Amino acid sequence: MEYSWKELIAVDRYIVHAKGILSELDRKVLTLLYQPLIGAQAYSLYMTLWSELEQARLWSEETTHHSLMAIMQCSLPTIYAERLKLEGIGLLNTYMKRTNEDDERVFIYELLLPLTPEQFFNDGVLNVFLYDRVGKTKFQKLKKFFSDRAIDRTSFTPITRSFHDVFSSIQPEKMIHKLSDEAKQEVMLQDGQQYIGKERAIYKMQDDIFDFDAFYAGLSHHLVPRRAITEKVKDAIKKLSFLYGIGPLDMQKIVMGVIDPAEQIDIEALRKAAQEWYQFERGEALPRLYDRVQPLAERTMAHAEPKNEEEYLMKQLETVSPRQLLMDFSGGVEPALADLQLIEDIMFKQKLPPGVMNVLIYYVMLRTDMKLPKKYVEKIASSWARKKVRTVKQAMELAKKEAREYETFMKEKEQKGSKKPIRTELLPDWLQTDYSQFERKQVKSEEELEQKRRELEERLKKPKS
Q1: What is the pLDDT of residue 203?
Q2: Which pTM does this prediction carry?
Q3: Cα–Cα distance between 126 and 202 in angstroms, integer?
Q4: Taking 90 as the threshold, does the pLDDT of residue 294 lie above it?
Q5: With CB atoms 3.0 to 4.6 Å apart as the test, which of 179, 213, 346, 433 could cross-link to 183 if both were Cys?
Q6: How would CATH label the architecture of 4-114?
Q7: Which family does the record claim for this protein (predicted)?
Q8: Using N-to-C axis directions, what is the helix angle for 76-88 and 65-72, rounded to 10°?
Q9: DSSP E strands: which ranges in 91-201?
Q10: Do residues 47 and 109 touch, judged by C-beta distance below 8 A?
């Protein structure tokens, strides 16, 4: 999602509210488990907001975002982008109201505590993402760090006393209903006050991430009654669909395979069945980065209809994974393992979102006669990562700029009297700029490349099965 001044400006005020008191264990969970997922800047934003609270207090003083920019030494668009990450992963709730004075805005940033280590490692989505980010060895070390040996209590006898064994009951004449109204007010919490407690971070996935209508349409009511699809099961279905790329038809088969005779669905059995389906379909233990699609928060065309060919391509690149894009390029043939490994390494090391990786693939393959030269791809990826390219639109605009600079360089080189023949690249429509002031030299391979470009765009326009 691109930043807009309508979303946030420096003079907008905010108040920090906490849903509990951060413990030392919570800090370690945030640092070691959440930070690899959200990045250092989002982690810094969370801790900076938390530091504005006084010790054991739930509310901060009101201040402006200009102050936050000064403390974090970063721009407002960066703060906004990192805020969205915290919201998406469930660590932050944001509320906004407009005041009557000059229509000013006030935000409440409500901080939630991270999941416990047990909740995190059993989540089914966050733990898989962490494994993908840090690798097997580090993941196992983290599990060991956040666990300890369990005591075998089978040889012990419980001797703990119960409450009524230790305490006697209160005499009837001293019960609260006997107290005066003034005394009752002393006992009860006053209006507008709340007790200090704890509320853990729970990230949410909207229903539209999975086509439940198609899922229900092909699901037999006799085999799987609708009452078996509880809210917990629906939530698990959304997470597993997002994580493993499972469509409604395949999810029907998975659900029908795990429902028990009592017509109930065990969440853990559902997770295992989804993992087995993924391993059978893809032959891999865990989903890879090249199977991801552009996050909804970073899609420019998520809620817009394309008005031209460029926007249509933009929407396609936002909704397809790098693996699927390569398959579309090759007419449905599974991509070479070397190409997939190259993409995986780049996405992991350079932290490029899937949509940006798609633009890079599209750009490079059309400039190098349908190849993915490792050094060339890594050079561009490194440049885009330094420039913090996060959306498909940003990547396409940057590619346009680089294409213009390349054309200018090649034209100047030609005008200086270079004896070597200059090969002028034919670029896809969204890279085209106004080169009418030039006299472009045509080469024999241009017609062939133009035909390939048209074929690729036609393949992208075909609906995915």
Answers
A1: 62
A2: 0.52
A3: 11
A4: no
A5: 179
A6: Orthogonal Bundle (1.10)
A7: Belongs to the DnaB/DnaD family.
A8: 90
A9: 92-98, 105-111
A10: no
**What confidence score (pLDDT) does residue 114 get?**
92
Amino acid code (one letter) for 264: Q
Q: What is the Cβ-side half-sphere exposure of residue 9, based on CA atoms within 13 angstroms?
A: 7
For 95, the 3-state DSSP assignment is strand
Do the Cβ atoms of 273 and 254 come closer than 8 Å?
Answer: yes
d(CA 316, CA 464): 11
Of the CA atoms within 13 Å of residue 377, those in its CB half-sphere come to 28
Interaxial angle between packed helices 354-367 and 392-415, expressed in degrees from 0 to 180 and rounded to the nearest 10: 30
AA letter at 401: K
Q: Locate tokens 């060895």: which residue? A: 137
Query: Taking a C-beta distance cutoff of 8 angstroms, is the pair 428, 366 a contact?
Result: yes
Q: What is the DSSP letter of 32?
A: I
pLDDT averaged over the chain? 79
Decide if 45 contacts 136 (C-beta within 8 A).
no
Looking only at Cα atoms, what is the longest distance across the chain?
A: 109
Q: Quick one: pLDDT band at residue 17, thresholds 50, 70, 90? A: very high
3-state secondary structure of 157: coil
Question: Do 199 and 112 meet the contact criterion of CB atoms below 8 Å apart?
Answer: yes
Contact 61, 74 (CB under 8 A): no
Q: Edge-to-edge, what's the strand order for the sheet holding 105-111?
A: 63-64, 13-18, 105-111, 92-98
Query: How many other CB atoms are found less than 10 A from the CB of residue 109?
Result: 23
Asked whether 142 and 33 are in contact (CB, 8 A), the reply is yes
Q: Compute the residue count for the chain.
A: 465
* Type of residue found at 359: V
The 3-state DSSP class for residue 39 equals coil
Nearest partner of 255 among 225, 279, 285, 287, judged by Cα: 225
Q: What confidence tens digit (pLDDT) does each residue in 350-386 have?
A: 878 889 999 999 888 888 878 888 888 988 998 898 8
> Mind listing the pLDDT tens digit for each residue in 259-269?
888 888 988 88
Phi-psi region of 53 (alpha: psi -120 to 50; beta: other; left: phi over 0): beta
Q: Say if residues 375 and 340 touch (Cβ distance below 8 Å).
A: no
Question: Hey, where are the domains in the chain?
Answer: 4-114, 212-282, 296-413
pLDDT surpasses 80 at 178: no
Residue position matching structure tokens 């407002």 = 76
Nearest 5 degrees, angle CA 110-CA 114-CA 119?
140
